[in-house]
Amino acid sequence: MRAPLAVAVMAVLVLTACSKDETARVQLYDRGPVPAVPDRTLPIAEPLADGQYWAPALGIAGDRLGFTLAQAFFGPTCEAELGAEACVDEPGVVDDPSVEVSVAADDLATVSVVTADRTNYAVTGAELATLAAGGAPSSAAPDNFAYVPYPFLVTLRDGVVVEARQIWVP
Question: What is the pTM of this model?
């Protein structure tokens, strides 16, 4: 009775060890999924809560990315909160109050950009800084890649920007 149990335990241990050796990594300019957009982002309040914010503007200062954060509303929530006229060119954005946050480009855990044809690509924070500053994309970029300054859905955790996912808007 103990032999089958020992074999089962050993099989689980071997499978677990093997699965940890293979870590999936996203490469520069891998195609990515369209980011999920909530019905609203968090309101701007001090201190900033953990969660998602709308960043209609991105600036570069040295190796730091600066995001202007505001609140945005999407779909039926936009019309319910701001009225139909404010949501014609969705999203509806409440830009007062807004706040500036910055992060070292290398500290961003997740970054994606979107092209005019709505194709999403994974990039690094350093690559985003280069693109936003008007620099050429790295050699890993697709031949037809062109950076467009669309807004970002920015995620804060413990008061720090950890994700910046660019969102295509009309």
Answer: 0.82
